[in-house]
Amino acid sequence: MKPIYVLSFSVIFMAACHSSSKISYPHTQKENVTDHYFGTEVADPYRWLENDTSAATAAWVKAQNEVTFNYLEKIPFRNSLKNRLTELNDYPKLGAPFKKHGKYYFFKNNGLQPQSILYQQSTLYSEPEILLDPNTLSSDGTVALSSVSFSNVGHYMAYSVAKSGSDWNEIFVLNLDNRQTLSDHIQWTKFWNVAWKGNGFYYIAYDAPQKGKELSAKNEFPKVYYHQIGQLQNKDLLIYQDKNHPLREFGPFVTEDEKYLFLIITETTTGNALLMKDLSDPKADFVTLVDGFENDYSVIDHINGKIYILTNWKAPNKRIMEIDPEHPSRENWKEVIPEQKTVLESVEIIDGKFFCLYLKDAAHRLFAHDLSGKLLYEVKLPTLGSVISLTGSKDDSEAFYTFSSFTFPPTIYRLDADKNVSEIFQKAQVKFQLENFVTEQVFYTAKDGTKVPMFLSYRKGMKKDGKNPLMLYGYGGFNISMTPSFSVSRIPFLESGGIYAVANIRGGGEYGESWHMAGTNMQKKNVFDDFIAAAEFLIAEGYTSSKKLAIDGGSNGGLLVGACLTQRPDLFAVAVPEVGVLDMLRYHLFTIGWSWASDYGTSEESKEMFAYLKSYSPLHNVVKGTKYPAVLIMTGDHDDRVVPAHSFKFAAALQEANASDKPVLIRVDSNAGHGAGKPLGKLIDAQTDMWSFVMYNLGMKPKW
């Protein structure tokens, strides 16, 4: 929705308050709106909150925020927690360097800058110079740099910016010789980076949305264009469109030698078709390599006359295949690196070698193979953790990777790919005692007998007496793996005796496509069962108790939290659904929501799918008179990924139904979206409010 303005007539929504708890919530108007699904009527009394540009919705948000911030301001340690989080965030944050045209580039935040700055330097140890500072693009830091892409010929860099957290991007071009931004300006694009060819690039764009519906209208009919440097967007060459399938997306990819253009075509978040065009032949048309959307195909690159593909075709854990461009049909593909027992997550070609990043029990391992597939060596990683980034080029032995874990701050390593020698390049200097904390991995049994891994981080000497406050985090969807990661926002909780747990539940990609599919569609409830089983295991093993247990998750993880708190309100003391998908009957009607159908199914496709969705949809399983835990719903007014109406309607329903004296609040951030690009100050504010709410409602009394 648009930014929230103060409206004098908001009193209409505050005139009547119910008081099922100590908090008086703004009254939310209910309307007689009913939908019909396969002969079943479903009421949707808060439908009016889907109108993200209405004065009534703005007034409701203002009134809700007043109640929420009045509550948060009374938490005695909120200010000191913010000071601690600010102190923890105040250290230089460096991204892994990468080389282009003989120079090094890297992102750096000196400490508390809203956005990280892109620097350039001639050598690895020469004085860096600012190339692009996104902090100059807005007064409040809410314009963020989404991506950068360097041309292979000439000296250009395309960069994308997003405003107020929206997924909509605008593309600009920087002349690297004089560091001047050119007149080129591309609008209404999202999700895909540009793909350079000569003095221009391929990109995707949508037709301009209806005014006032920019953040809510369904995204349809994207088109692929070629933009020549210096020309207006309306003069760009249309390369590809599909007038028969409005709900397909296209992603352009050009090989590094600029010989081949590939189009990745998707209908949902799972599976893609793949088209190829020989750019060296002006008369060449697209050739279909793969039709249909049953499997995933990712182009690694074209090298030595062969094209290499990472795919899960006939290999749920993925493998590398080789394509002869002269005979590109799938039946002619050759296997280079076969499927392993562990998941092959990503591949980079560095120093003429495949660097393969594998997942073993939700932690990374890194191996180097030659181009024939022969294993050369393993890059030894410091501990159980994650390789956040890996940068390098196919003709250079110098590479960089960033490694982190729950109690291991991001550390950049410089790798000699010839000798397999890693050395620390830079280590994050976070102001807390790392040696006082430990991470362990445990395995618990889910409802159907499946073994599920979980990471636990806590202060050394922790006792399993059932009295520890514990935050359980999960995601469980879209083949996304929850590998060990570092976040300073968790440190105050850990310092105060808390345990932080991440459950690697089904729906993610921790054990390949089979693990993912076991948490989708008519098996989606496995995800919630796995998470509930994690909570029950933690209680049974004495880590915590239901009175000391909080749960958190964002986006699809927000759905997870919403479903679990409505299914088992007795099991948790606190629940924080962030930017959650909470209305499972209507999610597909907004922006890019339709593309999630591969994981969820839709309420329109069949009577059985409708009934299944309704049986766990958080909004539709709120029961009046239920004693719910303390709930803080978090969203942003510019979230055009999961529109804030999900959170609005869920908050209204919970507030009306709740019979406990626990708070049910909604925090709506202004000029903020789904999370990406949020300036550091807003991140600290959000982290402060979330953790103060959690710690306060778990009865913690931290001292800083």
Chain-wise SSE layout:
Elements: E1 34-37, E2 40-43, H1 55-73, H2 78-89, E3 93-94, E4 98-100, E5 103-109, E6 117-121, E7 129-132, E8 143-150, E9 156-163, E10 169-175, E11 180-189, E12 195-196, E13 200-205, E14 223-228, E15 237-240, E16 249-254, E17 260-266, E18 273-278, E19 287-290, E20 297-303, E21 306-311, E22 319-323, E23 334-337, E24 343-350, E25 353-360, E26 363-369, E27 375-379, E28 386-391, E29 398-405, E30 408-416, E31 421-427, E32 437-445, E33 451-459, E34 470-473, H3 491-495, E35 499-503, H4 513-517, H5 525-540, E36 549-554, H6 556-567, E37 574-578, H7 597-600, H8 607-616, E38 630-636, H9 645-657, E39 664-669, H10 680-697
Parallel strand pairs: 34-35, 34-36, 36-37, 37-38, 38-39
Antiparallel strand pairs: 1-2, 3-5, 4-5, 5-6, 6-7, 8-9, 9-10, 10-11, 12-13, 13-14, 14-15, 16-17, 17-18, 18-19, 20-21, 21-22, 22-23, 24-25, 25-26, 26-27, 28-29, 29-30, 30-31, 32-33, 33-35
Helix pairs in contact: 2-10, 5-6
**Count of β-strands:** 39
- Which architecture of the domain at 28-86 and 432-697 would the CATH scheme give at its second level? 3-Layer(aba) Sandwich
Mean pLDDT: 93
* Estimated structural class: alpha+beta
CATH class of the domain at 28-86 and 432-697: Alpha Beta
- CATH topology of the domain at 28-86 and 432-697, by name, is Rossmann fold
| Assigned CATH superfamily of the domain at 28-86 and 432-697 | Alpha/Beta hydrolase fold, catalytic domain
Rg, nearest Å = 25 Å
Strand content: 25-35%
Poorly predicted parts: 1-21
Give the N-terminus to C-terminus distance in angstroms.
38 Å
Shape: globular
- Biggest sheet: strands, sense, closure? 8 strands, mixed
Number of contiguous helices: 10
Tell me roughly what share of residues is in helical segments. Answer: 10-25%
